[in-house]
Amino acid sequence: MQAYLFVHFREKTTPDGEQVYFGLSRDGFCWEAVNHGLPVLWAYYGDKGVRDFTVIRCSQTGKFYIFATDLSLSYGMRNQYHKSWQEIGRHGSKNFSVWESENLVDWTEQRLVKIGTKDFGCLWAPDIIFDKEERDYLLHWSSAHAENGYGAKKIYYSRTKDFRSFSTPQVLYQKEDSGIIDSAIYEEDGLYYLFVKSECNPSKVILLCAEHVTGPYRRVEAFDRSMEGIESGLYEAPTAVRLADGRWCLFLDYYGVPGAGQGYVPFIAQSLRSGEFLRSDQAFAFPYGFKHGTILTITMEEYERIKNHDWADRG
Predict the structure, then answer these.
(1) Tag placement on the chain: N or C end, fewer CB within 10 Å?
(2) C-alpha dist (Å) from residue 248 to 80, 244, 265, 285
(3) pLDDT (tens digit per residue) in 86-132
(4) Considering only CA atoms, which of 268, 275, 273 is closest in space to residue 222?
(5) Phi, psi values for residue 73, rounded to 5°
(6) CB-based contacts of 82, cutoff 8 Å, min separation 6
């Protein structure tokens, strides 16, 4: 029997919001807070705030890794970024924050990983997938770049085998008529599916498909039809998980209201190939608004270990 771990942050204007939070579920539908809804890990370095998590289990070593955007908006937006999204996009998050664990409860202290060159703008929203063809891991993220005057963002990728050494970044996907952010890739029946947030044309999450993890990617038009009734410009940060019965649950991060009213909205599909997702709010329960994270399938033993762990020592 499988369970689920949701690694996320909270939309709060206090220092505890942009930290590492865990949510747990036995079925992927009903979620509960870990550590009484308090952070389980803290960022002490870089911007001292972290957002936009991904979590992965290394198939070779069994170790777990959390990667995050090294960015404080709670205080940084007012302080070092002078309330300027342009400054954030160009000068924020030059590193990714990383934690490691062998058991999901004992984690290393935060370390910072430098990827790319000074020509990269803010490194947003890392995500990781195993490439079965190359037998390594593909770290991908969105960023602006000096080559286009830090204009429309693209999705870049870098390869790693040990989560410490990374190859020179390359472009994974770019959209000709708009910038894109918040990439998430999943494999189903030998094909790779890429969710991204398009910044316009449309200002919605879109889905693409490819035979190889690095593309080329083609648009899944059935998904566009599924999203026709979803308001433009209010959803981002797609993350998905395959449930025990084979269905897929896609969560889209709703940011259409200020503060704590934000959080994930669920959609269900029989397969990624179909592209047909049905909004399913009533089937899900969250203790509060989970923000921009990733779900990891875990065992029931791991579920109990996380649930029963005393997190009070993680000061």
Answers:
(1) C
(2) 40, 9, 14, 17
(3) 999 999 999 999 999 999 999 999 999 999 899 999 999 999 999 99
(4) 275
(5) -100, -25
(6) none
Q: Within 13 Å of residue 99, how many CA atoms lie on the same side as its CB?
A: 27
Order of strands across the sheet that contains 2-9: 31-33, 21-25, 2-9, 291-299
pLDDT, tens only, 133-158: 999 999 999 999 999 999 999 999 99
- Alpha carbon separation from 123 to 17, 278, 302 (Å, rounded): 20, 31, 31
Separation between Cα atoms, residue 244 and residue 58, nearest integer Å: 21
Task: Retrieve residue 227's tokens.
Answer: 């999203």
Cβ-based neighbours of 227, under 8 Å, separated by 6 or more: 202, 204, 205, 206, 277
Number of helices and strands (H, E) in the chain? Answer: 3, 20
The single-letter DSSP state of residue 89 is H
Task: Tell if the pTM clears 0.85, that is, is over it.
Answer: yes
Terminal alpha carbon distance of the chain:
33
Sign of CA dihedral 148, 150, 156, 160: positive
Instruction: Report yes or no: 254 and 266 within 8 Å, Cβ to Cβ.
Output: no
Q: Where are the alpha helices (DSSP H) in 234-308?
A: 300-308
Q: What is the pLDDT of residues 9-53, one digit of tens each?
A: 999 989 999 999 999 999 999 999 999 999 999 999 999 999 999
Q: Say which DSSP state 87 is in.
A: H
Q: How far apart are CA 254 and CA 53, in angstroms?
A: 16
Residue type at position 213: V
| Planar angle of CA 102, 161, 58, nearest 5 degrees | 30
Distance CA 134, CA 131 (A): 6
Under 8 Å CB-to-CB from 181, ≥6 apart: which residues? 124, 125, 142, 153, 196, 197, 199, 236
